[in-house]
């Protein structure tokens, strides 16, 4: 199969986001094309020729439809390396996604796309880098490592670790702040979320572990973005986090996923601090194109 420019667009999207549904691929790659059948046919060809893979189970969507999730295959990574003349594509994440986490990873991909789109709309705001939860990297010896965001501080019997779902670095006028992402589906009790997540983030702050992810950050701290399914869930978890005053609850910002769009993600008053006050992630100045403050 000879790859077309549109095929490369699909492969590049899977390289960037790791796991996508057919609907996401169509929206992200071909937003001007109303014919989704062409996208489905393209995906079938790419799967048949082993450039991409698809999950053996389908994911049900709110529209009532269902379909598999897609991810890059080794041949697809090689095709990108040849097309862009860049061997770095050979280190792309081609691991099969865990079936029990497909919904979760598709939500992470959606969040990634929204942040990327939001940055493209704002002059002076740059998404420096996004790191996915299980992004594959290679050490100096060429050996693959995975779960790059996971940091184990203490082993059993008193384990302590930090494992955000994703992380990204925003640059606003030269100010670069790390944002660590928790995408919540409401499957864990709010008290347990606070009790299990906060010690790891607190320790990460103490050792400045976010500088391991983003050594170019200009901040000594970071923001924890807790993105959840509803305003009610947002406020309940916020209340539970507030009870752990010794675990730096001031790092946390809480967002109702339904309010998060490319138009509102960075400058809308949708990020609630620990006291319930809403505000934007990024503050822009009155003068166009010249930000006066860094990321919140």
Proportion of strand residues: 15-25%
Number of helix segments?
A: 8
The strand count comes to 16
Range of helix content: 25-40%
Structural class: alpha+beta
Q: Which spans have pLDDT < 50 for at least 5 consecutive residues?
A: 287-293
3D shape: globular
Radius of gyration: 20 Å
Strand order of the largest sheet: 6-11-12-13-14
Order of helices and strands: HEHHEEEEHHEEEEEEEHHEHEEE
- Please tell me the overall pLDDT: 90
Query: How many separate structural domains?
Result: 2
State the end-to-end CA separation: 47 Å
Specify the biggest β-sheet: 5 strands, mixed
Descriptive keywords:
296 residues, alpha+beta, Arc Repressor Mutant, subunit A, three-stranded antiparallel sheet, 8 helices, globular
In short:
By secondary structure, this protein is of the alpha+beta class.
Describe the structure.
The chain has 296 residues and is an alpha+beta fold. It folds into 2 domains: 5-97, Orthogonal Bundle (Arc Repressor Mutant, subunit A), CATH 1.10.10.10; 104-279, no CATH class. Helix content is 32%, strand content 21%. It has 8 helices and 16 strands. The protein has helices at 5-17, 22-29, 36-48, 74-83, 102-120, 190-206, 210-213, 231-242; strands at 20-21, 52-54, 59-60, 66-67, 69-72, 125-132, 137-138, 144-145, 151-154, 160-162, 166-172, 175-183, 223-228, 252-256, 271-272, 278-279. The chain has a 5-stranded mixed β-sheet, with helices on both faces. A 3-stranded antiparallel β-sheet has the order 1-5-2. Strands 3-4 form a two-stranded antiparallel sheet. Helix 1 crosses helix 4 (74-83) and helix 6 (190-206) crosses helix 8.
